[in-house]
Amino acid sequence: MERTLVIVRHGQSEWNLKKLFTGWRDPDLTEEGIAEAISAGKVLAERGLKFDIAYTSKLIRARNTLTLMLKELGQEGLQTKEDEALNERNYGDLAGLNKDDARKTWGEAQVHIWRRSYDTPPPGKHGESLKDTGARVWPYYLTEILPRVMAGENVLVSAHGNSLRSLVMVLDNMTPESITRLNIPTGVPMIYKLSSDTTVASKETLEI
């Protein structure tokens, strides 16, 4: 039985290009981001992959990345579920700020902690750490996504750097320390094959 899960971080967004903290803000893709999404769809099509269902966040950069991939796959009408559980981590008071300006204000070390640490949230009432992000991603994965994969379906997920990092942390059995060094590039599909006990049988990152 094939148990295939493909995860893709959205293509470059307008705020990625401007080096702004984005979080739950909703900028669209740049021209490069559109090209990345199309390339991701093409490389999946070249693999002969067809999907039974797709999942994405509520944010336009992930939704549009999924739309572009599905067009390349010839699956524009595929059943798709959107949920804010897959949204990017909330960057709190940092959202909308330039990353270089933030470093000048708070220092390189502090901004690095906010960006990469496992359990230190950025400032602000709604700021989420990676641990906080995982607290909404993992239940959604376990209740909504994993059952479809375990039923033998091919599942495609288009989401964000940190929502996917929190998922990869569990899939790859990473520690809070090792996850700080993981960066997921934009528009690059990662293919997981799961075993009958839900653990990862194989993982492949496709070249774009």
- How would you write the strand order of the largest sheet? 3-2-4-1-5-6
For the record, what CATH class applies? Answer: Alpha Beta
- The tally of structural domains comes to 1
Overall geometry: globular
Evaluate the radius of gyration: 17 Å
Order of helices and strands: EHHEHEHHHEHEE
By DSSP, the count of extended strands is: 6
Poorly predicted sequence stretches spanning 5 or more consecutive residues: none
| SS summary, helix count | 7
End-to-end separation: 27 Å
Give a summary of the structure in a few sentences:
40% of the residues lie in helices and 14% in strands. By secondary structure, it is α/β, with parallel strands linked by helices.
Note the topology.
Elements: E1 4-9, H1 14-17, H2 31-46, E2 53-56, H3 60-73, E3 80-82, H4 99-106, H5 108-116, H6 130-150, E4 154-159, H7 161-171, E5 190-194, E6 200-205
Parallel strand pairs: 1-4, 2-3, 2-4
Antiparallel strand pairs: 1-5, 5-6
Helix pairs in contact: 2-3, 4-5, 6-7
Description of the structure:
The protein has one domain (4-16, 28-90, 129-205): Rossmann fold (3-Layer(aba) Sandwich), CATH 3.40.50. Helices cover 40% and strands 14% of the residues. It has seven helices and six strands, in the order βααβαβαααβαββ. It has helices spanning 14-17, 31-46, 60-73, 99-106, 108-116, 130-150, 161-171; strands at 4-9, 53-56, 80-82, 154-159, 190-194, 200-205. Strands 3-2-4-1-5-6 form a six-stranded mixed β-sheet. Helix 4 (99-106) crosses helix 5. The longest helix is centred in the C-terminal third of the chain and has 21 residues, at 130-150. The two termini are 27 Å apart. The model has no long low-confidence stretch (mean pLDDT 96).
